[in-house]
Amino acid sequence: MQKINRIELISNKYIKPYVFVITFVIRIVNYTCSRLVAHIVPVYLTYTMIRHTQNKNLITLILGMLATVSPFAIDFYLPAFAQIADDFGTSTARISLSVSSYFIGMALGQLLYGPLLDRFGRKRPLYAGLIIFIIASIGCTFSHRVELLITLRFIQALGGSVAGVAAMAMVKDFFPPAQGPRVFAMLILTIGLSPLLAPTIGGFVATAFNWKAVFILLSLIALFALIIVFLFLPEGQEPDNTVTLQVKPMAKTYLSILSETQFFTYTISGSFSFATLFIYVAGSPIVFIELFHVSPQMYGAIFAFLSVGFIGASQLNIFLVKKFTSNEIFRFSLIVQVLAGFIFLAVAWYGLMNLYSTILMLFIFLSCVGLINPNASALALAPFTKNIGSAAAMLGCSQIGIAALASIAVGMFESVSMLPMIASMVATASFALFLLLRGEKKMAGKIVAADINKGTVAH
After folding, report:
1. For the CA atoms of 414, 417, 421, 422, what is the dihedral angle to 10 degrees?
2. How far is it between the farthest Cα atoms of the chain?
3. Dihedral sign (CA 107, 109, 113, 115)
């Protein structure tokens, strides 16, 4: 009871203001859209909207576009770190804190938008979140201090995270269970492609124009998504006024989920391993642009190549689970990740790493994450037959939240060196292995078998 009261006190102080703002924006959007539909939209356009709602392929494309909004915003401006640091008169390490603040906003969004999408329907929270994302993106172009950029990136993530949450929810609205896995696979493949494309495009935009053009383009992409959603995406689930937005009932549900040993073990252990990916994202501009002096375009190419390791390993996992259990793959990959991390740290400590060996070690490290993450998610959700949605939300929040906090370490060292990034990655991976071994001892071999499809959907 004391835990719940403490959570409620924190929520009243920090979370409720954001819920109030988002709810207020949703109500404004609701009124505006109703007046717009009633007085401005012609009859023939309404007919076109109704016709397009029957097109499942179009809906799939729209959901894929929504799922990439927030991941694209993470990687798009990474090649411009040096430009932003020069304009602000600060270090690249300080600018990397804006990546961490974005991750924190994404983590909060995982928990906030679930109830809002049920209470107000799918499209109105989408309008509100995308509008917040657009305003924050434009605000980033007017920021002249790193503190303001960090704050605006948090707000940007808080708005943009609704797109991915809504896309996942609307798969169940528009498609029967038999088609769900195919659509989810497409969405996850689309999300996986964003780190391949975003830094490359962002590097060209930053070089051809400047870093502000990157955020202007992000706002235009979100505006385009907003227009497409308004014109062609049907509502999906209707608003449900019975859904409560009170903190205490939600807190009780989340606490009961965390009390499940298997969920706690694989969620927290997997999240600390997953944090190495976020640490890499925050630290890679320092390593490649500041330390090895590669161009923004070359940085984008390196980032895309390393993303192949992560994405390729996650696809390889589909075949591995036919021969090995998820727990075996998870444990083996985590051990390899820790050993590779210590080798990476030792060689870097003596200054023996060059550009190519650094890329190789990061490729191995990120490939391990690609194997660990889907199995951790599947094992965490395996014990549940109800409250799966809340468990998935807690899983997503834990993954992104822990990773966001871990990535802050890169920016706090204020160093043009790869050692803070590598040391942070080794520390989080080692702690993940410790948690796994401790959790397995508590479960004493009583592990519920995982459905890998659950894990893939959760992520």
Report:
1. -150
2. 71
3. positive
pLDDT value for 22: 58
The sign of the torsion formed by the CA atoms of 50, 56, 62, 66 equals: positive
Rounded CA gap, 120 and 243, in Å?
Answer: 9
Give a three-class secondary structure readout of the chain. Answer: CHHHHHHHHHHHHHHHHHHHHHHHHHHHHHHHHHHHHHHCCCHHHHHHHHHHCCCHHHHHHHHHHHHHHHHHHHHCCHHHHHHHHHHHCCCHHHHCHHHHHHHHHHHHHHHHHHHHHHHHCCHHHHHHHHHHHHHHHHHHHCCCCHHHHHHHHHHHHHHHHHHHHHHHHHHHHHCCCCCHHHHHHHHHHHHHHHHHHHHHHHHHHHHHCCHHHHHHHHHHHHHHHHHHHHHHCCCCCCCCCCCCCCHHHHHHHHHHHHCCHHHHHHHHHHHHHHHHHHHHHHHHHHHHHHHCCCCHHHHHHHHHHHHHHHHHHHHHHHHHCCCCCHHHHHHHHHHHHHHHHHHHHHHHHCCCCCHHHHHHHHHHHHHHHHHHHHHHHHHHHCCCCCCHHHHHHHHHHHHHHHHHHHHHHHHHCCCCCCHHHHHHHHHHHHHHHHHHHHHHHHHCCCCCCCCHHHHHHHC
Going along the chain from its start, the domains and CATH numbers come out as 1-239 (1.20.1250.20), 257-459 (1.20.1250.20)
- Residue 443's Cβ-count burial label (10 Å; 0-12, 13-18, 19+) is middle
* More confidently predicted of 25 and 107: 107
pLDDT band at 449 (very low <50, low <70, confident <90, very high): low
Type of residue found at 257: I
Q: What is d(CA 122, CA 387) in angstroms, rounded to the nearest whole number?
A: 20
Sign of the Cα pseudo-torsion (203, 204, 205, 206, in order): positive
Phi, psi of 436 (to 5 degrees): -65, -50
Q: Do residues 117 and 393 make contact, with C-beta atoms less than 8 angstroms apart?
A: no
What pLDDT score does 25 carry? 57
Other beta carbons within 10 angstroms of residue 400's beta carbon come to 25
- The pTM score is 0.69
Residue holding tokens 């999300």?
A: 191
Q: Are 155 and 137 in contact (CB under 8 A)?
A: no
Cα distance between residue 360 and residue 376, in whole Å: 25
Higher pLDDT, 59 or 154: 154
Least confident of 43-57, 164-178, 180-194: 43-57
The Cα 22–Cα 115 span in angstroms is: 12
Count CA atoms closer than 13 A to 88's CA, side-chain side.
26
